Amino acid sequence: MWLASRDPRTPMRAKLVGLLIAAYALSPIDLIPDFIPFLGLLDEAVLIPAGVWLFERLVAPTQMAEHRAVAERASQRPKSIVGALLVIGVWIASGWFLWSIARMWWD
Fold first, then answer.
1. Quick one: which H or E segment has residue 70?
2. Distance (Å, rounded) from C-alpha 14 to C-alpha 76?
């Protein structure tokens, strides 16, 4: 949906539907609050897939297939070793910091 929404060939109605779906999915405000048993999560389980279905119906099938292929290729890119090392370094530094504080607290 992200790629198709940014494509100039996508109809404005589909772009609007895509924007509304994304806004509802990311919004902390729900039609039915999540703390209500069963119904709280049911609105997301129904409205978001229905919105995606509507979005796909508004965009040409060939265009959607093209964007799916691009998304598939993008998901198979090599992983960033520098990024992984950075995350591991942050975890190690955080662990060392917490260990140092805990050691000072108990001494």
1. helix 61-75
2. 27
- Structure-token pair, residue 59: 């965009």
Cα 17 to Cα 22: distance, rounded to the nearest angstrom: 9
Q: Is there a contact between 18 and 55 (Cβ–Cβ < 8 Å)?
A: yes
Q: How far apart are CA 78 and CA 74, in angstroms?
A: 9
HSE, CB side, 13 Å, CA atoms: give it for residue 25: 15
**Is the pLDDT confidence value at 100 over 90?**
yes
Q: In whole angstroms, give the CA distance from residue 26 to residue 38.
A: 20
Span 16-28, average pLDDT: 89
d(CA 52, CA 18): 8
